Amino acid sequence: MLLAILEPLVTFAFAALALLGLLTTLFFYLVGPPDFPRWTMLALSLGFALALVPYHALIRLLSNGSKDGAVSL
User: Fold this and answer.
1) What pLDDT score does 69 carry?
2) In a domain, 69, yes or no
3) Structure pTM?
4) What is the C-alpha to C-alpha distance for residues 50 and 15, in angstroms, rounded to an integer?
5) How many Cβ atoms are within 10 Å of 34's Cβ, its own excluded?
6) Of 5, 16, 26, 27, which has the maximum CB count within 10 A?
7) Could you tell me the CA-to-CA distances from 20 to 13, 15, 23, 50, 57 in Å, in that order?
8) DSSP 68
9) C-alpha distances in Å from residue 67, one per residue of 2, 15, 26, 59
10) Contact, 24 vs 48, CB < 8 A?
């Protein structure tokens, strides 16, 4: 239940970090120093975006999704 309550905050935070990392990478690629670690930043941004997949899968796994009232694990 706690995961479901925190889901909007976690989704917003991870999505915001992914977008911010992507925009920062783009900005520094265009006007920043030539030795900026753009691939590391892109991988980090993609990691934040992909971290939402197991989070939502865990919520789905732990939630009671059966229609007959039986607990399923």
Assistant:
1) 54
2) no
3) 0.76
4) 10
5) 6
6) 26
7) 10, 8, 5, 15, 24
8) S
9) 22, 32, 47, 17
10) no
Residue 35 to residue 42: CA distance in whole angstroms: 14
**Residue 31 lies inside a defined structural domain of this protein:** yes
Residue located via tokens 């920062």: 24
Please give the chain's pLDDT, 73 residues, in tens: 888 899 999 999 999 999 999 999 999 999 988 899 999 999 999 999 999 999 999 989 988 765 555 555 5
For residue 1, the model assigns a pLDDT of 81
DSSP run (H or E) holding 17: helix 2-31
Structural domain total, the chain: 1
Q: Quick check: is 19 in a domain?
A: yes
Can you give the residue range of the structural domain that contains 32? 2-62
Query: What residues contact residue 1 under an 8 Å CB cut-off, 6+ apart?
Result: none
Give the whole-angstrom CA distance, residue 67 versus residue 7: 23
